[in-house]
Design goal:
Number of helices: 4
Structural class: alpha+beta
Number of strands: 6
Largest sheet: 4 strands, mixed
Low-confidence stretches: 2-8
Distance between the termini: 23 Å
Radius of gyration: 16 Å
Strand order of the largest sheet: 2-1-5-6
Strand content: 25-35%
Length: about 130
């Protein structure tokens, strides 16, 4: 879930934003207080049509994480700490990325079992799309 920004001309920029709670597990003889912390994690959204671009389809449902345990594992690996909870907050995007995403969805609606791009976006991201300049 690392945040490495990239994208070609016209693709724009976007990131999946999560609220994560992680736990520190210090070595024996060391204590921390508190043991758990909350933070915001951003994962770069892969350019539409490229490997990984279906992250939203595979991990979100109606604007929520569809498999929290799986996302905790991904976040734990990326952060190097035990992540105990993950909550999807939004797809933070610009207009160029959202337009490219819509085009990629429209190019193969069979991937989503629907006939409408707006239905796909609502089905997986709910109202959690935040367009920024």
């Amino acid at each position: 879930m690392a945040d490495e920004r990239r994208g070609g001309p016209g693709v724009g920029d976007a990131a999946y934003v999560f609220r994560v709670t992680f736990r520190l597990e210090p070595e024996e003889g060391v204590t921390v207080a508190p043991e758990t912390f909350e933070t915001t994690l951003e994962r770069r959204a892969d350019p539409p049509g490229e490997a990984g671009w279906l992250f939203f389809r595979d991990n979100c449902w109606r604007g929520e994480a569809n498999d929290e345990a799986h996302l905790c594992d991904l976040a734990s690996e990326a952060l190097g700490v035990e992540v105990v909870s993950v909550a999807f907050r939004e797809l933070r995007t610009d207009e160029a990325y959202l337009s490219a995403l819509r085009e990629a969805i429209a190019a193969d609606l069979s991937l989503f079992r629907t006939d409408d791009v707006d239905e796909v976006l609502h089905k997986y991201l709910g109202s959690s799309i935040h367009v920024r300049e």
